[in-house]
Amino acid sequence: MANFSKSNVPRFSVEVYQNEFLPEGGRDVSAIVTVTATGGGTTGRLPLVSVGPRDAAARQRGASAAVAVMVDCSGSMDYPPTKLRHAREATAAAIDTLRDGVAFTVIAGTHKAAEVYPGGGRLARADAATRAAAKDALRALRAGGGTAIGEWLRLADRLLHTQDAALRHGILLTDGRNEHESPDALRASLDACAGRFTCDARGVGTDWEVKEVTAIASALLGTADIVANPSELAEDFQRMMESAMGKEVADVALRIWTPLGTDVTFVKQVAPTVEDLTQRRADAGPRSGDYPTGSWGDESRDYHVAVRVPAADVGQEMLAARVALVLPSPDGTPPRPLAQGLVRAVWTADLAASTSMNPQVAHYTGQAELAQVIQQGLDARKSGDWDGATAKLGRAVQLAAASGNAETAKLLSKVVDVVDAVTGTVRLKAKVADADEMTLETRSTKTVRVKK
Fold first, then answer.
1. Helix (H) / strand (E) containing 255
2. CA-closest candidate to residue 269, choices 218, 228, 341, 334
3. Model-level pTM greater than 0.85?
4. Which residues of the chain have pLDDT under 70?
5. Which end of the chain is more exposed for a tag (fewer CB within 10 A), N or C?
6. Is the preceding peptide bond at 118 cis, omega within 30 degrees of 0?
7. For residue 176, what are the β-bridge partners?
């Protein structure tokens, strides 16, 4: 393990867990890389309203930031009318949670995007006066029109980049499907915004499309979730904004160097959620590639790195990969690693050593499969393939039980009747509430860490 510190950023550390032993001629090496950042400030929760000097000081901590809150104001937000009222209250809660000095804007989203506050193609600086003015402006929000989420994101991108901020973040709320924009148009907007700001996406109610919302969060390295009951929006928005305000550094990349003849098979974030980063590689010099990880505060994440090395004889060993955390350098000079770890390969004739799977690697391999079979099972259920759905969701129940993922097991139990969790024997429920099915699908990628 190695770690380095740098002014104005958290201290990062890297730990590598693997079984480095391969049989003669073996080529595939897997490792779990645990990245931990400390000093980012997300361990403390700021109050909704500043009530004293200590709270005011807390608001001043942290990196410069710009935030855009995108609120769905399409016609469906008026059914029932309380939905838009709860969205206003949630946006107000997010505004109250902003640190002093953070630049922010509120956007109303329909089949087009409109600035709600402050307007004029600019952002406001958070203080008591601008918070009050922004909350007053929310009263003008009215439901009407369609849904074109790509337009909301593009406006947020333009506004956020009027600021020279270290961190740029969005919060997006929708209650319906993206019906007034083609899938290709939304994909183009996500591609245009990727790497320019991060975004948490929420679906309220049960009339929105899970794959659309999760695709937004995935592309923009944020979180996705369902808020089935609109009355719970304010608490969720407060939580999201507190997390955003605790971030200290953006654009951190996982840089992987491999020696000649070695290829990266895949790179996945596996905790706290599963996110495949393999196709997001950006070349970073000879035999090096950067994989985006987004913004960091006080937190720890796990990554599964798999490489394929040249075959070798018993007794040989090699450095299979070097994994480092890097920040882009503002002056264009090569970035100094914030932390790094080494992945090794050692060829042995010891069959027990070469066939043993590292516990962390085994655990997260199962967690990645769990996320996959839940999605496959729910897709099969929607298409009427009940046998396929039963098999996949049964496997999911088995994996959740074996890994101790109690939260996912609880969500699965609302979709299937569990006969035997150990063997994965289940029966599909004849009737499942939309909210329960959507919650399972939205949260299917959430993982638990390996049992120590």
1. strand 249-257
2. 218
3. yes
4. 1-9, 40-63, 451-452
5. C
6. yes
7. none
